[in-house]
Write a structure and sequence with these properties.
Blueprint lengths: L6 E6 L3 H7 L5 E6 L5 H9 L3 E9 L3 H4 L1 H4 L2 E7 L6 E2 L4 E2 L1 H14 L4 E9 L13 H6 L6 H6 L7 H23 L4 E7 L4 E5 L6 E4 L7 H4 E9 L19 H10 L4
């Protein structure tokens, strides 16, 4: 939060090497190290016990709400897109184009606030690919409530690394298209980054076993190296803090857990 930006765009679970290959958006690109190997750690590492009354957080990921009491961060406003009819029940995620549409509205509605826009892609589920439904039926039948990556690691499902990477790149292309649409409609100093990466069969440490997904407490380059693309366009907004506003929402624990399960969490 101490970095200089007006809009921070987070691509969930986007590996730095994938971003370097797929992104054609012009800007000043560098690499940073995340404060976590999964979203919960990232949120805790960056927002814990902070009063962020100059910042609007628009998110498709339920993790901040799930861990809000432990993180104890106060944004000016938080918009939970995942708790709306934009959540696609058929594939278990929010389409990146819908995140862009909401973000455009909120940036226009709050022109003098910093904005964090948290997309879900390239995170699983993999939209419009052969792997779109992989794991969902298995997860529902799995008495241990393991996530898709745990099933892969134990050999209960067998998806090739090549197929997973292809699906990730498809998700990444979709979200980058949506981000370009957002960029066409906003100005200021904009950062595109990720909360963490994803490990796809590479060796972890200190125990050198093949890992999958983004487990906590493992800080390999595949998991914590993230892109940091700086884009400067047009006039920068004048940022003012304001008294935080709590938006009344009808959110149940069941909704949160269902959303997280669709995303492959347990």
């Amino acid at each position: 939060m101490n970095e200089d930006w007006d809009v921070l765009i987070i691509l969930d679970a986007c590996r730095n090497d994938m971003f370097l290959k797929a992104c054609e958006i012009e800007g000043k690109l560098s690499t940073k190290v995340s404060r976590g190997s999964n979203t919960r750690e990232f949120l805790s590492g960056n927002f814990s016990d902070k009063t962020l009354s100059d910042t609007v957080y628009t998110t498709a990921n339920p993790q901040f709400y799930k861990h809000r009491r432990n993180i104890n961060a106060e944004f000016y406003k938080t918009y939970n897109i995942w708790n709306s009819d934009l959540w696609d029940e058929n594939i278990g995620t929010v389409h990146p184009g819908d995140v862009t549409n909401v973000a455009k509205q909120k940036i226009e509605e709050h022109p003098h606030k910093r904005h964090i826009v948290h997309y879900l892609q390239p995170h699983y589920p993999f939209i419009d690919t052969k792997l779109e439904d992989i794991g969902r039926d298995i997860l529902e039948q799995n008495s241990d409530y393991s996530d898709i990556w745990g099933l892969q690691m134990r050999g209960e499902i067998n998806i090739s690394k090549e197929m997973i990477n292809k699906a990730y790149y498809k998700n990444l292309e979709l979200v980058l298209d949506a981000v370009e649409d957002l960029l066409d409609n906003i100005s200021g100093k904009i950062i595109i980054t990720s909360d963490h990466g994803n490990i796809v069969g590479e060796r972890s440490r200190p125990i050198p076993i093949k890992e999958w997904g983004h487990p906590s407490g493992i800080y390999t380059s595949e998991l914590v190296e993230i892109p940091w693309l700086v884009i400067e366009k047009g006039e920068r907004p004048e940022i003012h803090a304001g008294e935080s506003v709590q938006i009344e929402e009808d959110i149940t624990d069941e909704i949160v857990e269902d959303r997280l399960k669709d995303l492959g969490y347990v």
